[in-house]
Amino acid sequence: MDIRDVIELVKQAKPFIQNRDMADHIKVKGPADYVTQVDTNVQKFLSEKLYELAPQIQFLGEEEGLHAMSSDTFWILDPVDGTTNLIHDYQHSTVSLGLYEKGEIVMGVIYDPFREEVFYAEKGKGSFRNGEPIHAAQAGTLGETIVAIGTAPYQKELAHENFQRFERIFMKCQDIRRTGSAAMDLAYVACGRIGGFFEARLQPWDFAAGMLLVEEAGGRITRFDGSAVNPVEPGGILATNGKLHEELRGLL
Predict the structure, then answer these.
(1) Are 42 and 13 in contact (CB under 8 A)?
(2) Which of 2, 23, 109, 235 has the fewest CB atoms within 10 Å around its CB?
(3) Level-2 CATH architecture, domain 3-134
(4) Helix 204-216 vs helix 182-190: angle between axes, to the nearest 10 degrees?
(5) What is the C-alpha to C-alpha distance for residues 194 and 185, in angstroms, rounded to an integer?
(6) What class is the 142-249 domain?
(7) pTM exceeds cut of 0.90
(8) Per-domain boundaries in the chain
């Protein structure tokens, strides 16, 4: 399968994401957890197009929820990573698509339709942004970089612990950032804009594509305890350029 064909399909989601009428049709899934007509339409569109491209590959999308798959090869899609941003026209939302195969992510595409940036990677072939190779930042310490944070807004009970982490890290790094899209943050780790990103609770569709981008760009991604990330299991994620991984992990 040619990744260029996959990228072109993902980019066709742009008109849906720019449709403010669809963005205003909102359903509440849970505390601070929303779905819009954009989410459902992008997922429907891409699931159908991906089936046409590769009918043998199954599909797992956020709006269906996490469930057991009957195959060891399937797409993992977040149709809009940053739905709350989209609702408020805060233009930091992405489409995130990963291809899972026999225990690992072998292809990842993250598309930012507001900046026309496509970040993508294939296993063993490096990471790219709009056709150009990208690499994780060279910073050797937190004091040389900025760090992106995720607030785990669906689990407000984690707020106290999270904000203690944020303060510890803020005191060590140059500054912190919060985009509201984990996929975007992972893409930014991969291209060196930030030295690291972490969030206490994420679902596979939030990080599947991004974890491959980070690894192929020379970075590192683990759980908070340093263990390997199973790409189909939810949980906390720490992604860095690799050089400052243990320093950042020690502050979590």
Answers:
(1) yes
(2) 2
(3) 2-Layer Sandwich (3.30)
(4) 0
(5) 8
(6) alpha beta
(7) yes
(8) 3-134, 142-249
